[in-house]
């Protein structure tokens, strides 16, 4: 019986740890080089520095992602409800041309950056990316306030933005 009880405690401990929300970006994410819409290089750390002191909603998406495109009206509604928030779109597109055409085609309003190595690359792995769209919220101090939701109208996302007003 003691063995079963001990095993349950160990399993519960691991499960609790795996559900813990990441509150800081890993060094590999921060040093990851991305592209601007002007086709210049910038690190993710430099991107975050640009928006320091602001609440940021990060939308990880791609122009080829049907779920991302279907979710855009929800993102636009979020932008209307929270106009003082910075909306940072990080694309997982494979190339610059497809990405910039997608921004224009879907009228994506916000700040735009392109990852250098796709979903399974350094940035994607560092944020445990397993699905797009993926939404994150960064507070005014640069801490991750919400690590993962996959719907722009998710209750957790709304509650997080409300708490950061």
From TrEMBL:
Signal peptide: 1-20
Keywords: Cytochrome c-type biogenesis, Disulfide bond, Redox-active center, Signal
Residue span, Thioredoxin domain: 23-165
InterPro entries cross-referenced by the UniProt entry: Thioredoxin-like_fold (IPR012336), Thioredoxin-like_sf (IPR036249), Thioredoxin_domain (IPR013766), Thioredoxin_ResA/DsbE_sf (IPR050553)
Protein name, as recorded: TlpA family protein disulfide reductase
Localization terms from the record: Cell envelope
TM ranges: none
Main location: other
